[in-house]
Amino acid sequence: MKIDIIAGARPNFMKIAPIIEAIQQKKEAGINIDFRLVHTGQHYDRAMSGRFFEELNIPDPHINLEVGSGTQAEQTAGIMVKYERLLLQLPCDVCMVVGDVTSTMACSITAKKLNIKIAHVEGGIRSFDLSMPEEINRMVTDSITDYFFTTSAYANQNLKHEGVPDSKIFFVGNTMIDTLLKNEKRFRQPSLWNEHNLKQGNYFVLTLHRPANVDEPYQLENLITEISTHVNDMPVIFPVHPRTAKTLAQANLKLTNLYMVSPLGYLEFNYLVKNAKAVITDSGGVTEEATVMGIPCMTLRNSTERPETVSIGTNELLGIDPQAIKPALEKLLIGKWKKGAIPELWDGKAAHRIVEIMASIK
Which residues are catalytic? Predict the structure, then answer.
């Protein structure tokens, strides 16, 4: 069996790394399974992408479609045209997509129209917020998926409510957590640790990139000011996403405990998360990592596609109103934040379960 593994953007990289390793192990054991890593080029820059490949020991892509930046429609069309061309010349048996980026949807549609089976890692997750492009990507992909590899009971139920038969749903766990657990001992202290005199449990990590939070200077300024003002003067470390940087250039922030830094590699970023007092974010993936590491997490979004991080884990959904930040921080600082637990099957073995199932398919 020849599997195309699709990677398009940074959130994909942590999810594909353990799957590739598990396939390589099966292949070495004599099982008839192999992969072709297809990077669509949806996101690719040395600082934010290349470093992830090196740190997580992901092999160089067999193919880079080099689609580059553009609008949602431009990227979708570019990926579909170039991936179709590849499949017509060199077909695969299964197209495996992960997560919910544009590449996930575009490659799924292209492969399915060529009668190639689709496997969706993280199938079934839903925010039920159609204003998010990622939600459209999830719904479209799942409407044509053949093998659903799910991370939670919530995802399983979502698929069943949409009429997906049990025979197509495989509850395997979370490959992003496979990567986290494998690399936890390798987390690396960034140079900014000493530069800003950071101490364990005495600083916050902030990440923001969603349009509702970062596209309007007024909203972004209010969020950051509320956070920095109500953390008892503790440092706030803010790795700035390129989208956010454009708006910050128009902002007028003068906060002495806010440290805006360049994007960090996987090992350095998660070192900061693991040792933080708390994380404030609008990233779904960060909420999963914080949950497993037992770090309090506040999500500045009105919805989440990962409700298990709230119902089971350390995460709380605050919404995007800046006024919600102060009471949440007060709760945290007086020691009343929930402890949280780790969701079922988030045990570092999800990729092996996926590959076992794929290897058994005839």
Answer: 209
Nearest to 230 by CA among 210, 195, 255: 255
* CA atoms of 199 and 52, how far apart (whole Å): 26
Reported as a single tens digit per residue, the pLDDT across 82-91 is: 999 999 999 9
- The residues, any chain, with a CB within 8 Å of residue 229's CB and separated by 6 or more, are 255
With helix as H, strand as E and coil as C, how does the chain read? CEEEEEECCHHHHHHHHHHHHHHHHHHHCCCCCEEEEEECCCCCCHHHHHHHHHHCCCCCCCEECCCCCCCHHHHHHHHHHHHHHHHHHCCCCEEEEECCCHHHHHHHHHHHHCCCEEEEECCCCCCCCCCCHHHHHHHHHHHCCCEEEECCHHHHHHHHHCCCCHHHEEECCCHHHHHHHHHHHHCCCCCHHHHCCCCCCCCEEEECCCHHHHCCHHHHHHHHHHHHHCCCCCCEEEECCHHHHHHHCCCCCCCCCEEEECCCCHHHHHHHHHCCCEEEECCHHHHHHHHHHCCCEEECCCCCCCCHHHHCCCEEECCCCHHHHHHHHHHHHCCCCCCCCCCCCCCCCHHHHHHHHHHHCC
> What is the spatial distance between Cα 103 and Cα 15, in angstroms, rounded to a whole number?
14
CB 124 within 8 A of CB 149: no
pLDDT at 317 (0 to 100): 98
Burial of 12 (0-12, 13-18, 19+ CB in 10 A): buried
Reference 79, options 141, 159, 172; nearest CA is 141
Q: Which residue, among 234, 232, 236, has the nearest Cα to 223 in the 3D structure?
A: 236
Domains of the chain are: 2-174+346-360 (3.40.50.2000), 190-333 (3.40.50.2000)
Cβ–Cβ under 8 Å, residues 214 and 247: yes
Cα angle for residues 105, 35, 29 (degrees, 5° grid):
140
pLDDT digits (tens, 9 = 90+) for 293-317: 999 999 999 999 999 999 999 999 9
Output the pTM of the full model: 0.95
Look up residue 344 and give its amino acid.
E
Residue 63 CA, distance from chain mean position: 22
